[in-house]
Amino acid sequence: MSFIEKRYQKPGTAPGTLIDRDVETRIPPSISVIDYDAETINEFGELTASEAGQYLDSPRTTWVHCQGDADVSLLQRLGDAYKLHPLAMEDVINAGQRSKVDVYSERQLFLVLNLPVLRDEKLHIEQVSLFLGPTFVVSFHTGPADIFEPVRQRLRGPVGRFRASGADYLFYALIDLVVDQAFPLIEEYDEALEELEDLVLHDPDTKTLEYIHHVKRELLQIRKTLWPQREAINQLIRDDHPLVTDNTKVYLRDVYDHTIRVLEMLEAFREMATSLMDVYLSSVSNRMNDIMRVLTIMASIFIPLTFIAGVYGMNFNPDAGPWNMPELNARYGYPLVMLIMIVLAAGLLWWFRKKKWL
């Protein structure tokens, strides 16, 4: 099972070459633009790449967002309009990149983030690509659902720090939203682990074991996906770049703390999933021990009874000699033997209970 759609260029392809991918589940791209400052905000949807490129020279902060799978033509037009580096555009179209920060000049930063989401009860890793310029942010999200609506609502609200700040604060807000999307996802895995714990303790079966393996594997994949994001955000904080002000770095430090919390929770849940496997094996072993104990007790009770029945089932003729089972001629021989067998079985049950084997 693959969580990430692996896209890469054919070996030997020139760097920065953009090639459309033949993806059956391609999501049609949609471009929106928000152009704002402390006093005004203009919002436009369903634009073409050429129309979105007209806002490059705007004196206000401009946010261009592309939702869905961008094709080569769209990327080339946006790249030409906003002078985006071709290597970065190649990383945008070849989704499944490792989270990273690339600095192409003093006027352009490129950041790749990965967004794990549960869709149709399956884990998917979506890529979010962000370009930061002096007065603009260009974002790409490969998923079908737009996760940035809360940021738009904040921009539409009353004038505050957000509208009065520059493009780097918008850059931070988008990063913060992507990172925080991990918390509700982790809560879903927390609930799944609680359900698994109940199943393991009360009704363990092979399906439970398969579910534990599935959850553990997905948690490992999420951890592998989100681990590089911590280093990427730390690089934004650590490195000096004219596009990221010291005021914004204060907020990025808070995002860095969130990435650490996410990774710690994932590590804890991975250990919990591992311990659930141990509990499952112990539970199955205990159930097997209980079954074997019951069978052993039943066998221990019936072994002497079978011995008695076998002895008196040998059918030696008592008339042939005085030692050939004279009990066969006893008037109450059969009830006596049955009584002895009942008393013997009861005595064994009493002994097992006294030893706390039952």
What is the CATH topology assignment of the largest domain? Beta Polymerase, domain 2
Helix content: 40-55%
- How much is the average pLDDT? 83
Largest sheet, strands/sense/barrel: 7 strands, mixed
What's the helix-strand series?
A: EEHEHHEEEEHHHHHHH
- Which consecutive residue ranges, at least 5 long each, have pLDDT under 50? none
- Sheet with most strands: strand arrangement: 2-1-3-7-6-5-4
> Total strand count, please?
7
Q: Return the structural class.
A: alpha+beta
Strand content: 15-25%
Q: What does this protein structure show overall?
A:
By secondary structure, the protein is of the alpha+beta class. The protein folds into two domains: 30-283, 2-Layer Sandwich (Beta Polymerase, domain 2), CATH 3.30.460.20; 312-354. The chain is 54% helix and 16% strand. The protein has ten helices and seven strands. The chain has helices at 49-53, 72-82, 86-93, 149-156, 161-164, 167-180, 182-202, 206-238, 246-311, 333-354; strands at 30-36, 41-47, 61-67, 100-105, 108-119, 122-132, 136-141. The chain has a seven-stranded mixed sheet with strand order 2-1-3-7-6-5-4, with helices on both faces. Strand 1 (30-36) and strand 2 (41-47) form a beta hairpin. Helix 7 packs antiparallel against helix 8, helix 7 (182-202) packs parallel to helix 9 (246-311) and helix 9 (246-311) packs antiparallel against helix 10. The two termini are 47 Å apart. The relative contact order is 0.08. The mean pLDDT is 83.
